[in-house]
Design brief:
The complex is a heterodimer of chains A (399) and B (299).
Chain A lengths: L9 E11 L7 H12 L7 E12 L4 E5 L6 H8 L7 E6 L3 E4 L12 H11 L4 H15 L14 H14 L4 E5 L7 H16 L3 E5 L3 H7 L2 E6 L2 E7 H18 L7 E9 L8 E2 L4 E9 L2 E12 L3 E13 L3 E7 L7 E11 L7 E14 L21 E3 L1
Parallel strand pairs in A: 3-7, 3-8, 5-6, 6-7, 11-17
Antiparallel strand pairs in A: 1-2, 1-4, 8-9, 10-12, 12-15, 13-14, 13-16, 15-18, 16-17
Helix pairs in contact in A: 3-4, 4-5, 5-6
Chain B lengths: L38 H10 L1 H16 L7 H22 L8 H23 L1 H4 L1 H4 L8 H27 L11 H25 L2 H16 L14 H7 L1 H15 L5 H26 L2 H4 L1
Helix pairs in contact in B: 2-7, 3-4, 4-7, 4-8, 4-9, 4-11, 8-11, 8-12, 10-11, 10-12, 11-12
Pfam families (chain B): ABC2_membrane
Main location (chain B): membrane
Keywords (chain B): Cell inner membrane, Cell membrane, Membrane, Transmembrane, Transmembrane helix, Transport
């Protein structure tokens, strides 16, 4: 036996998992076919690695964000941590009680009432009836179910089912809490409360593994980030570094898809500071964005310019009317005081016929590239609901 | 604002895997996962899950009778209805000889056992398939699902035995003094039934065809098992083989001897049945545990 790790430890050593990639039809003639091939010495099996050589050691009380694109193996890994799925090779060791919220309706039986479901789920986690009873009121209170607790779960709305599922998983005091991309179903207020609860549980020493594509949410919960790519650990580091690396790779991919065949193209762009020689940008100081457009189009058009953090959270956008004369056109925008804190940002542009943003596309909205801003870091804010382009930026245009 | 500036933020982000150590093409063969069963650990895990078995059985019972007006009465109505048919067909028409014992009592005793078996088999076979959504999210020893269905069938059986007590009153006969033989016979009955439920439950997950096989087994089984007739109807020289394949034959015969005729069950038949049911139980358990690891992959 290996040494004794404390409750809440998660350890994986050289974990491999594979799935069948060939069609797995169950018809008899396929079976016969397969058997004939096997007799000839051809196994005829096609396997695809879902996870390769995963080594993780998570200490009790750590909060780890699992990020990566679709199909990178996040959910498979989580399923193996819950012991629902078995690895093809390697050692998985999770100490203590596991609370998992893999999908909505985790452990929820539609024909039973909410109350019965809570006890059933508690039993699944290995809790005694008495222990569940002690936490019962907290669960009902958190899930905001009130009188609905004695109604059959099949009559619940999907939000109610999700709330019940999360409340049960988070309040039955697991040593390890695994949460997989489920909060999307709840409304914004409930998402907020879930994240709060997860932070609270983390502070009480519960180990958390959180899978989500909502990167700001991951950042607000987790201290450590594990970025999976094509079934392997690409980066295992502090959450900021892991997220930055992941965002960069997304951006690199989206930039690669260049726009061709549109009436206008962005030939060149530059984001520079006060000093034309110095290309570094600083918070609260002047910034000039210079674009050069080219194409056959002649006439008036609206140029849109936007800045986002990463690719997903827009910060501000501004627009300007330009007149294209068939040749290259240079346009610059001066922002006297850049309101962005330190970080890496993406610049977006697009050109549309006057008065239209649908239909009259001259150059579709796309990310042109990235720029870095130097300056003070913001204090990590309490996570709030993200609004589209929440910052107003004073600016003036020159042609 | 202001303050620290000009810090390089374009530093390498996180540590990518060192380029010198690419991921190998496959896992080292000694690490390939193998199912190891430690009997003690398995037993401990199952014992720890007793609360869960109870909760699952309770869930099934509640869910089953939640929208049924007659509720638990169904546990009695089904064997009673079959019993009435059997009395008409086998007693009146075929004229099965049951000695001094009323035929209705004779058949009802067999039907209780058969109902228990067929309930556990039919529900137990689907117990994993019906709980896949649960299985894919929460870990627990998987054998609790067929076990819970057997517990539900046991509740039904207890209700059925209550009615049997009433029948003794109606027919004005007392159960024979040899009724303690019931205890080992119950053991055989449970072991065999659970073994079958284990195999079928995991088979249904892998092969949907098994689902369609269930009604056929149920239909044929009730006539292939000495429910309506005594075991003696099976040719003498085949009886041992028969009991080896279907221990329920010896179990039902044993109950009848112990409860109705006041005799000890046939020792030889009972031993064969006991050995056979043990093989079904252990074999079923091993198959179950072996195939259990792939449930999440195929479902």
């Amino acid at each position: 036996m290996s040494r004794d790790y404390p409750l809440g430890t998660i350890r994986t050593e050289q974990v491999w998992k594979r799935f069948r990639a060939d069609q797995q039809r169950m018809l008899l003639r396929d079976r016969v076919d397969q058997m004939a091939r096997r007799l000839r010495g051809d196994r005829g099996e096609d396997w695809r690695w879902a996870l390769r050589d995963i080594n993780l050691h998570i200490e009790p009380g750590e909060s780890v964000g699992l990020i990566g694109s679709n199909g990178s193996g996040k959910s498979t890994l989580l399923k193996m941590l819950t012991r629902v799925m078995y690895p093809y090779a390697g050692v998985i060791d999770v100490r203590g009680r596991i609370g998992a919220l893999i999908e909505i309706r985790a452990g929820i039986h539609p024909d039973l009432t909410g109350r019965e479901n809570i006890y059933l789920f508690g039993a699944l986690l290995g809790l005694k009836r008495r222990e569940v009873a002690g936490r019962f009121d907290d669960i009902v209170e958190f899930a905001r179910l009130g009188g609905a607790i004695d109604r059959q779960v099949k009559f619940y709305s999907s939000g109610m089912q999700m709330r019940l599922g999360f409340a049960v998983a988070a309040y039955l005091e697991p040593h390890v809490l695994l949460v997989d991309e489920v909060l999307a179903v709840g409304d914004a207020v409930f998402q907020q409360r879930c994240l709060d609860r997860m932070r609270e549980v983390a502070e009480q020493g519960t180990t958390i593994v959180f899978v989500s594509h909502d990167l700001p949410a991951v950042q607000s919960i987790c201290r450590r980030g594990v970025w999976l790519e094509q079934g392997t650990v690409r980066v295992d580091a502090g959450i900021t570094d892991a997220l930055a690396g992941y965002r960069d790779s997304i951006e690199a991919q989206s930039e690669a898809s260049a726009r061709v065949g549109e009436p206008l193209q962005l030939l060149k762009y530059e984001v520079r500071g006060e000093d034309a020689e110095d290309t570094t940008l600083h918070t609260d100081e002047p910034v000039t964005v210079e674009l050069t457009l080219g194409g056959d189009y002649r006439g008036d058009a609206t140029l849109h310019l936007g800045v986002s953090e990463g690719t997903s959270s827009p910060i501000f956008q501004i627009s300007h009317e330009i007149r294209m004369t068939g040749g290259d056109h240079r346009v610059a925008c001066v922002i006297p005081r850049l309101p962005l804190p330190r970080g890496r940002y993406t610049l977006w542009t697009g050109v549309y016929s006057i008065g239209k943003t649908d239909g009259g596309t001259l150059m579709s909205w796309h990310s042109a590239g990235q720029f870095d801003v130097f300056g003070p870091m913001l204090d990590t804010p309490p996570r709030a609901v993200v609004m589209a382009a929440p910052v107003f930026v004073p600016h003036q245009w020159e042609d | 604002m202001g303050g620290q500036r000009a810090q390089v933020i374009d530093e390498p982000r996180g540590q990518a895997a060192p380029p010198g150590a690419p991921v190998p093409a496959g896992p080292p063969p000694e690490l390939v996962f193998k199912r190891r069963l430690r009997p003690l650990q398995v037993a401990r895990e199952l014992w720890a899950a007793r609360e869960l078995v109870r909760a699952l059985a309770e869930r099934d019972l509640r869910a089953r009778y939640k929208q049924a007006v007659l509720g638990f009465a169904w546990a009695v109505l089904t064997p009673l209805a079959l019993c009435a048919i059997f009395t008409l067909v086998f007693h009146r028409a075929v004229k099965i000889e049951t000695g001094a014992v009323p035929y209705t009592l004779f058949a009802y005793l067999g039907l209780i056992v058969w109902q228990f078996f067929s309930n556990t088999m039919n529900q137990g076979a689907l117990s994993l398939a019906n709980n896949l959504s649960l299985l894919n999210k929460v870990y627990c020893p998987r054998e609790v699902f067929p076990l819970a269905t057997m517990l539900v069938a046991t509740v039904d059986m207890v209700i059925g035995v209550g009615v049997l007590g009433l029948m003794f009153l109606v027919f004005w006969t007392a159960p024979a003094a040899t009724f303690l033989w019931v205890v080992p016979l119950l053991g055989i009955q449970f072991a065999f039934t659970y073994g079958i439920a284990l195999i079928l439950s995991v088979a249904v997950v892998y092969l949907r065809d098994v689902r369609h096989l269930l009604p056929i087994i149920t239909q044929m089984g009730v006539f292939a098992t000495p429910v309506a007739y005594p075991l003696a109807k099976i040719p003498q020289r085949l009886q041992e083989v028969y009991v080896g394949v279907n221990p329920l034959g010896a179990v039902i015969e044993g109950y009848r001897k112990a409860l109705l005729y006041g005799e000890a069950p046939d020792a030889r038949m009972t031993l064969i049945a006991a050995a056979s049911s043990l093989v079904f139980l252990v074999g079923g358990y091993l198959v179950f545990k072996k195939l259990e690891t792939g449930i999440a992959d195929v479902a």
